[in-house]
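Weekly structure sync, notes
Attendees: PL (lead), two postdocs, one rotation student
Agenda item 3: pending single-chain targets
PL asked that the sequence for the first pending target be pasted directly into the notes so everyone works from the same version. It is reproduced below exactly as submitted, 117 residues in total.
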Amino acid sequence: MRKKLMILLVVTLFITMMFSTGCKKKFDIQGTWNLSFIWSNGTHGILALTFTGGKESGSFSHKNITLGTYTVNDKSVTWKYSLVNTVYTGASTGDNNMSGTMVSFNGGTGTWTAVRK
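Predicted structure, written out during the meeting:
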């Protein structure tokens, strides 16, 4: 009887740990994404970006040309597009989706969405 009670206690603790916030799955930005963007002046486009490095930081590229660096904090994402001095900020809205806003060095603003390929 004690053995069964001990097994039940261990299973209960394991299930509790799996569903607690301490075991929350972190957003992983690594991989290739289709980015759609639109600037406030109407300029828009679609790019395939590849994020490489780690879950918290690394670099991103388009057609094997490194464009800048990224950071991830929980579900928040920021990437700095060095070539055009633009900062993208946003959040994941699921494992394969993220969206946010962008600001360029000259004050231009816009919005973006990305879907993992």
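Discussion points:
- The first helix runs from residue 2 to 19.
- The first strand starts at residue 31 and ends at 39.
Action: rotation student to compare against the earlier draft before next sync.
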